[in-house]
Amino acid sequence: MSMVETKTRILDAAEGLFARQGYLGTSLRQVTGEAGANLAAVHYHFGSKETLLQSVLERRLLPLGAEREAELNRLLVRMESGEVVEVETVLEAFIGPTMRLCESSARGAEFSLLVGRILADPGGPGQEMFAELVGPNIELLLRALQAVLPDLDSELLLWRVHFCLGAMSHSLCLGHLPGFQGLVPQSVDTQTVLGRLIPFLTSGLEAP
Amino acid sequence: MSMVETKTRILDAAEGLFARQGYLGTSLRQVTGEAGANLAAVHYHFGSKETLLQSVLERRLLPLGAEREAELNRLLVRMESGEVVEVETVLEAFIGPTMRLCESSARGAEFSLLVGRILADPGGPGQEMFAELVGPNIELLLRALQAVLPDLDSELLLWRVHFCLGAMSHSLCLGHLPGFQGLVPQSVDTQTVLGRLIPFLTSGLEAP
DNA sequence: GTCTATAGATAGATAGAC
DNA sequence: GTCTATCTATCTATAGAC
After folding, report:
1. Strand D: which positions are within 7 A of a protein CB?
2. The domain containing residue B96 runs over which residues?
3. Among residues A101, A182, B21, B113, which is most buried (max CB within 10 A)?
């Protein structure tokens, strides 16, 4: 039994298990088992399994969203004052916080896998929570990219942003993909991924 | 009760339900309910829930894989004879069969959603089946792209192909994403998606 | 706050009649 | 091949002692 309080241990265990096995693939008994807590403690602290997921998401996404919002707003202000900003810079403002979270700890990296799962689970629990937590960030990203690429049709831009989100979430899951014998890249450290993802997405966004 | 045999009705129902609700989110009772069949019929025809998923995947992916293999091999032969082939052409050979399946019927479109789910479910059932069914296609895609982009480092190419797969699978799920108030593109017909995806991916692959 | 014990519902799988 | 009936296991959730 660790020194941190039960509530935090449950959050940590749920985050890892939801990420590795999915929300439906994880039972609350597994969570309490890994957390060294009791089944009833989950309902006492969080109310239900779904509310537990909400808490897991909010713990990471609220600060992450604030960081992204600050960075993107800073860029928007600079652009309004006439300064020229590159597409790469905008993308980095959006992806950077996520990548730094991945680097900061093994838990952070697992969390990004959970986000990837939720993105690919239409209608599932977490999708609505995610939309509410990250939607404003995506709107800001769209505004910033539109300002950098003023000649790009806005609906085409929207599509391309979704292509970017797909590439992002998929590559964040890659380190965990088994079975693709030799078809998964060796180096999966986030610095390398970011260094390869940003140029790819930039060229895609700037396509004619 | 329809005219088609029970086995096919079960396959159809399972395909749609697995796609809309996920594998774990779907019970065999839901499948038999929608198929107008009995619970025991699933075990008689398919053995288990997991084998049912395998059959669902194989029914579409075996012909799809053969089509992709034929198209990509045709391109490789043309390139070996010295002919110049564009990146767009290689991508279309890989994505085209999937897109045509999506257009052919509502069931085909749902199937692509199921594939997107499986791609984002590391360690889940279906991941290994998918790798075995589609892995050879991805190897062919890599060979064809490497031939078209000989100066690109092979591991960088591998990463970029994974970015492409992520963008593909995510955009195939998009029509079903609720909740992203106004953040989801209007037109989701596959022709439009293909027309916007291919240039995006081509520019990304050709990035410096 | 944390525990035991259990309720109540539902899951996949199977046996055996027809 | 298709059905009913049932087994066994597991799930979320809750009531109540401490």
Report:
1. 1-6, 10-16
2. 60-205
3. B113
Would you call B128 an interface residue with chain A, using a CB distance cutoff of 8 Å?
Answer: yes
CATH number of the CATH domain containing A143: 1.10.357.10
Among A121, A189, A120, A87, which residue's Cα sits nearest to residue B159? A189
Structural domain includes residue A4: no
Q: Chain B residues with CB inside 8 Å of A113's CB?
A: 122
pLDDT in tens, B125-164: 999 999 999 999 999 999 999 999 999 999 999 999 999 9
Residue A163 vs residues A78, B12, B123: alpha-carbon distances, Å: 26, 29, 24
pTM: 0.96
CA-nearest of A46, A135, A141, A49 to A95 is: A141
| Nucleotide closest to B52 measured between CA and C1' | C12
pLDDT digits over A136-147, tens only?
999 999 999 999
Number of domains in chain B: 1
- Out of A24, A166, A207, the one facing B170 most closely (by C-beta) is A166
Q: Which residues of A touch B127 (CB under 8 A)?
A: 177-179
Q: Is residue A163 part of a domain?
A: yes
Considering the domain boundaries, does residue A81 fall inside one?
A: yes
Residue B168 lies in a domain: yes
CA distances from A183 to A153, A191, B73, B179 (A): 36, 20, 19, 34
